[in-house]
Design brief:
The protein contains 11 helices and 17 strands. By secondary structure, the protein is α+β, with helices and mostly antiparallel strands. A hairpin with a 5-residue loop joins strand 16 and strand 17. It is globular and about 65 Å long. It starts with a strand and ends in a 25-residue tail after the last strand. The N terminus and C terminus are likely disordered.
Length: 387
């Protein structure tokens, strides 16, 4: 039986908290942590679940027992609540032993938020892929009170209507520094294709892309076990988004290529420790589902593009339902990712309206050259929003 610490959530209540789950996968862990509890999923490996102030209301952290303390993978966001929970966790389930190393899977705030706190307050080392450290540090230092010119151009190019555009233009944007402790000026680098020791076991490092650049995953050589971060989630699909910092990025292409590459290493009995939701078995099936999910969305999008559409007009075709205002940012980023994928593979065209919005349409010539990336700037993109 997995060892448990303090209070746990009854497995019978899981559907109310994490959804029905994916019935084609296995969920072998018999209990779930809650707040300052932890569940031992394998010998010396604790699963911790910390709250998030978002619609996705939690993040998974994994603590690995070392001879002289603990290694943790990811941290949660930088809030007073999360810091207090970590103080209780270190005194309780971590048995008063120090966290001497923090490993970061990717640069998103819910995963790196307290890396600097562990370094400055507890003296922990920070280990991460170089790209992860650079992005986290750069974005934390980049604080803005109003949307940048690039952000406003991104909204215009997406065809955001004037009312929504004016609201976005006046609002303070999200800043990493809102929920990320200052990132340390130094770190230890994790390299793709290398091996690393965590918790007395040897793990092969394999990077994925799409959800985040250089997302580190760790594959145990000793037992069928994977630290998957957000690359391998069980019953939700990782957000694949394009943002104003690189508006012609192709993360969906990168994500699909990564999924296909990981199929070579995936086995049905591997226990996947994901960044959200529940640890599970059945990674080969899950990788196929992730690929199929996006391919199906792309097929719906191509049908929608039989008539010219702006990005925001494609939301319902991609997601299959209307988008709520609170989800607009994620929906916009993911919609651009899908459209850029079609454009990159010469399955869609785009041209610019007078107001700076791209109009997308299906490309009829399906036998044309693939992977063509036209270098085109929308001539109306720098114009002010028209009434």
């Amino acid at each position: 039986m997995p060892r448990t610490c303090i209070s746990l959530i009854s497995r019978a209540k899981w559907p109310d908290i994490v959804g029905k789950g994916n019935e084609s996968l296995g969920y072998p862990v018999a209990a779930m942590p809650d707040g300052i509890s932890a569940v031992e999923v394998q010998d010396g490996i604790l699963w911790i679940r910390l709250p998030l102030p978002y619609a996705l209301n939690h993040v998974n952290i994994y603590a690995f027992r070392e001879t002289d303390g603990w290694t943790i993978v990811d941290t949660g966001v930088n809030t007073a609540l999360t810091q207090n929970l970590w103080t209780d966790l270190m005194a309780g389930p971590l048995e008063g032993m120090p966290v001497w190393r923090v490993i970061l899977t990717h640069h998103h705030p819910d995963h790196v938020g307290l890396a600097g706190w562990f370094k400055s307050v507890h003296g922990a080392e920070v280990w991460a892929p170089r790209t992860v450290w650079l992005l986290a540090r750069m974005l934390t230092l980049d604080v803005q009170d109003r949307p940048s010119p690039e952000a406003l151009e991104f909204y215009r190019a997406a065809g955001v209507n004037k009312q929504a555009y004016d609201k976005l233009a006046k609002a303070r944007p999200f800043n990493f520094a809102d929920c990320v402790h200052p990132i340390p000026t130094g770190f230890k680098r994790i390299v793709d294709g290398s091996a690393i020791e965590i918790g007395g076991r040897i793990w092969d490092v394999r990077f994925g892309h799409g959800h985040a650049p250089a997302h580190a995953t760790f594959w145990c050589r000793d037992v069928p076990l994977i630290i998957g971060g957000d690359q391998f989630l069980a019953d939700i699909t990782p957000n694949i988004g394009v943002y104003n910092t690189e508006p012609e990025a192709i993360p969906l292409t990168e994500f699909l290529v990564s999924c296909e590459r990981f199929c070579e290493f995936a086995e049905a009995d591997q226990l996947v420790l994901p960044g959200h939701k529940i640890p599970y078995n059945g990674l080969p099936v899950r990788l196929g589902q992730l690929i199929e999910n996006h391919e199906t969305a792309l097929e719906r999008l191509l049908e929608e593009l039989r008539e010219p559409r702006t990005t925001v007009q494609c939301f319902e075709a991609i997601f299959g339902h209307p988008i709520k205002e609170r989800d607009f940012g994620f929906a916009l980023a993911e919609a651009v990712a899908h459209l850029n994928h079609l454009w990159f593979h010469a399955k869609a065209n785009r041209y610019c309206r007078a107001d700076g919005a791209w109009l997308w349409s299906r490309r009829d010539d399906r036998d044309s050259m693939g992977a063509v990336y036209p270098s085109v700037r929308c001539p109306g993109a720098s114009r002010t929003m028209q009434t």
